[in-house]
Design a protein that fits this description.
The chain is mainly beta. The chain has helices spanning 33-52, 144-147, 151-167, and strands at 3-7, 54-55, 68-69, 73-77, 83-86, 89-90, 98-102, 111-116, 122-127, 129-130, 136-139, 188-191, 196-201, 204-208, 213-217, 223-225, 230-239, 243-251, 254-261, 263-264, 271-272, 277-280, 291-298, 301-303. Helices cover 13% and strands 36% of the residues. It starts with a strand and ends in an 11-residue tail after the last strand. The model is unreliable at 1-63 (pLDDT under 50).
């Protein structure tokens, strides 16, 4: 039997600079951009190796990729009758053998993959993880109560986050994740996945979680399109931190989330096609300017949408 592994290589859109501030409306570029671009190029080479890797018969040599980058979404094909585990997680295997899993931002590796054939033959592979550069972003201009919320607001945030987490833990058999993803809007990247965030409140630095997705700066009201087909699993116009929020499930635990929307045009349970308008860009919730935040998950593992895209001119 032959197993073919595939993943999308990280690419940086031509002509785009990553700003120091992860939100839209900021034009100052990172002083470390050139260093970050070099690290992204290394991650690109690593993911290309993954895309080109082909698994031999389980009983023989297994030319898995030499390495994979942090934040990657790995899509592969195995024997449809095989059982696959990644880091102890049992993967859903599609009728044609499709599988997918994510590599987290802080994953140090190696990622362990175990493939068991129907006849009991088993192969275990350990893939090293290539680290990426995560610059620190200092963000000013957001309301202090969104950074250090009072107890009643903190309780609301916890309730809202629990609803979002539940929506992205689905494991549907659909394989919409397997198609080529497209840009939800055309614009300048104003914040990138994984950067460490520090909010400045009354002159004090308040470290927060790393950026969970990619920000694209566009005017208020710009239509936001689905990057791939799927089913809407969450739609709420007024979450405290993320404002207008939509989640799209792409199957096998893969989902996209769109935050800070000024308008929502879809409903929970709605089946959508790639390119359908799901809402409009805005700056609702904790934001400093109009933009689209696009995040992606494999269950609870956050991955980098940029690694799934072809380059484009803003």
């Amino acid at each position: 039997m032959t197993h073919a592994a595939a993943a999308n290589a990280p690419v940086v859109p031509r002509g785009n600079g990553f700003s120091r501030d992860a939100f839209a409306g900021r034009n100052e570029e990172h002083r470390g951009f050139r260093r970050s671009r070099t690290m992204m190029a290394s991650a690109t080479r690593a993911a290309v190796l993954l895309a080109a890797a082909v698994l031999a018969h389980v009983a023989g040599a297994a030319p898995f990729p030499d390495q994979v980058s942090q934040g990657a979404l790995v899509r592969a094909t195995v024997n449809p009758h095989a059982k696959v585990r990644v880091a102890g997680h049992v993967l859903r295997v599609g009728p044609r053998g499709g599988i997918v899993f994510g590599v987290g931002r802080d994953e140090q590796g190696p990622v362990t993959i175990e493939v068991t054939e129907r006849d009991g033959q088993r192969e275990r592979i350990a893939i090293p993880v290539t680290p990426r550069d995560w610059p620190i972003e200092r963000i000013e201009g957001v309301p202090p109560k969104t950074v250090e919320p009072p107890p009643e607001i903190a309780a609301r945030i916890q309730r809202e986050q629990a609803r979002v987490v539940a929506a992205r833990r689905r494991d549907d058999a659909r394989e919409d994740y397997a198609q080529a993803f497209t840009w939800p809007v055309e614009g300048r990247i104003s914040g990138r996945f994984g950067n460490q965030r520090v909010y400045v409140v009354d002159g004090k630095d308040v470290p927060k979680s790393p950026h969970s997705g990619m920000d694209i700066a566009v005017p208020q009201g710009t239509p936001v399109k689905a990057p791939a087909a799927g089913v809407v699993t969450f739609a709420d116009p007024d979450l405290y931190l993320t404002g207008g929020t939509v989640l799209i499930d792409h199957g096998h635990g893969v989902s996209s989330n769109f935050l800070h929307l000024s308008r929502i045009d879809v409903k929970v349970g709605q089946r959508i096609a790639q390119g359908d308008v799901i809402g409009a860009a805005g700056m609702t919730g904790r934001a400093t300017g109009p933009h689209v935040h696009w995040g992606m998950n494999w269950f609870d593992v956050r991955v980098d949408p940029l690694l799934l895209l072809e380059p484009h001119e803003p």
